[in-house]
Design goal:
133 residues, 0% strand
Length: 133
């Protein structure tokens, strides 16, 4: 009887934590979205003017992501899927950047390729984290 009570309170406590997390996430989202909507055009113009920032971010993703994936692969899970997803994402990031350097008119394609690359890199890191636990 006592065990069921502990089990019930554990689930109740866990659901309270999830509820608090979701509430805080919602509040932060609601506060930041209007600010980001206003700032995005300004940031876009700034990032277009200083395209080296794009390169620094991509290089940071490659260096930090490779280090993280190597650690997870070597010490924890030995699964190739996160590594393959990350390599696919890095390919898109680099291809989009090279396309932008040589073809300035392909701006929309550049943004799409780098966005897909970022998404694949993020999914790979998330999967690596899940497999490493």
């Amino acid at each position: 009887m006592n065990i069921q009570k502990k089990s019930h309170s554990h689930h109740s406590h866990r659901s309270e934590q999830i509820s608090v997390f979701l509430s805080l996430t919602c509040a932060i989202h609601c506060m930041l979205t209007p600010i980001l909507v206003v700032l995005m055009p300004v940031a876009s113009v700034y990032l277009e003017k200083y395209h080296w920032i794009d390169t620094v971010i991509i290089l940071s993703v490659i260096v930090l992501g490779t280090s993280s994936l190597y650690h997870g692969y070597k010490l924890h899970h030995q699964k190739i899927v996160p590594v393959a997803l990350f390599a696919f994402g890095v390919f898109f990031l680099i291809f989009g950047t090279i396309l932008h350097i040589f073809f300035k008119d392909a701006l929309i394609l550049h943004h799409l390729l780098t966005a897909f690359g970022g998404i694949f890199c993020g999914i790979a890191q998330f999967l690596n984290l899940r497999l490493s636990r």
